Amino acid sequence: MRALTTQAKPTPTVSALNKDEFRVFELARKEEYNHNTSKYVFKLPEGTATLLPVAACVLLKAADEEQGPKDQKGKPVARPYTPISESDREGEVDFLIKKYDTGKMTPYLASLQPGDKMAIKGPLSKFPWTPNQFSSVGLIAGGSGITPMYQLLTHSLSLPDDHTKFTLLFANITSADILLKEEFDALQQKHPDRLSVVYVLDKPDKGFTGPKGYVTKELIKQHVAGPELGEKVKVFVCGPPGQVQALAGKKDGMKQGALAGALKDLGYSEDQVFKF
User: Fold this and answer.
1) In principle, which of 47, 92, 181, 276 could form an S-S bond with 148, CB 3.0–4.6 Å?
2) Is 98 annotated as a binding residue?
3) What topology does the record note for this protein and the membrane (predicted)?
């Protein structure tokens, strides 16, 4: 009897997204991740994927603008989010989104049920990643600001010819707030020569042996390659506005804004720092 063979499905080459217009997608599943964060899985048309470039995000807004959140001027609110799923995954896209009770968008997202719809536009390219452009990269993240870092790490570490070394400083309030911890621990175990992960907790549990409090200048100096490396070092920052401002200066909307804070005090230049 002839053995049956199964052919691997071809990688999608058509993007479900459009960078110039919002397209509507249905929520397939919503899975509780922890006490304030959920994973949202949206359906994409068969044979398509997001095909997002690395270090890119998308904009989400309510498909029903009348029922969705609005800003102070009464206009529909749209917010940038970074998917955590592979860019070539067919038929679905995953987001890991933390609910902020005082926010405009996340309480609305938290109210969604499977079958409800959101409008998505993208990609919005943030930083053009080139393998081996930097010898050492520092990733400083807080809370749900981890998703762009996860996207960048999974991409770079999957490339056998990319030798960039990464240090991740990931700040949270408690251990229960750490998103994607199992995934980061697995990446660090698989790539010990390329990735070092440091968890920082403001309210640590008993037995926690990592740094306590916030990401400080001393912590950055201890773990992240210094500015003396010039063009071969880069520091990416993403997190709550207050944290970003303290570390690297306030962002100016979608623009970077002037460099300030701890990284400037340590001698890094604007060319060496990028704020997601």
Assistant:
1) 276
2) yes
3) Single-pass membrane protein
Place of tokens 């964060």: 37
**Contact (Cβ atoms closer than 8 angstroms) between residue 125 and residue 56:** yes
Residue found under tokens 């970003």 = 244
pTM of model > 0.85: yes
251 carries a ligand binding annotation:
no
Q: Is 229 annotated as a binding residue?
A: no
Sheet of strand 195-201: strand arrangement: 195-201, 165-172, 136-142, 233-238, 273-275
89 marked ligand binding residue? no
Establish whether 105 is an annotated binding residue: yes
96 is in an annotated binding site: yes
Q: What is the pLDDT of residues 48-83, one digit of tens each?
A: 999 999 989 999 999 998 889 999 999 999 999 999
- The structural domains of the chain, with segments of one domain joined by +, span 15-125, 136-275
Q: Specify the pairing of strand 233-238 against strand 136-142.
A: parallel
* 11 labelled binding-site residue: no
Instruction: Tell me which fold the domain 15-125 belongs to.
Output: Elongation Factor Tu (Ef-tu); domain 3 (2.40.30)
* pLDDT tens per residue, range 200-257: 999 999 989 999 999 999 999 999 999 999 999 999 999 999 999 999 999 988 789 9
Q: Which two tokens stand for residue 29?
A: 């599943």
Bridge partners, 27 (sequence order): 42
| Residue 180 annotated as lining a ligand binding site | no
Residue 150 contacts residue 188 (beta carbons within 8 Å): no
